[in-house]
Amino acid sequence: MNRKFGLSESELKAFRANGYAGPFDVYDRGEMKETYKKLRADLFDRQHAIYNLDPSSRLAGYDRHLDVDFLSTHITRPEIVDRVACILGPNVVCWRSEMFPKYPGDEGTDWHQADTFGHASGHP
Predict the structure, then answer these.
(1) What is the pTM of this model?
(2) What is the rounded average pLDDT of the residues 15-19?
(3) At 84, which helix (H) or strand (E)?
(4) What DSSP element (H or E) covers 31?
(5) What domain range is 51 assigned to?
């Protein structure tokens, strides 16, 4: 697969051994600071959100790529898609998105999916 931002053989090997790829840059710091100023306001506007719920609802952050232009553009960036396609193959689709804020100094998010489903087959 010849992709501009694809993973090298050594990066793929590291992914297979460690379960993650990166870190890698998608935006430069200045670009993201300016983008975030506008994006933050867009995130509070839920009038076109697919789940137009109270912001405290657990579904409030689902599928915002469908109504927030920045997020729909973000998930199609070659810096991301090329790398994901190297791992999953060329037929990559964004089926769902979930967004939740993590502010500087906040604790990390537990590996809830891995914790719940990591041993679903009965084997590690």
Answers:
(1) 0.72
(2) 93
(3) helix 78-88
(4) helix 29-44
(5) 9-17+28-102
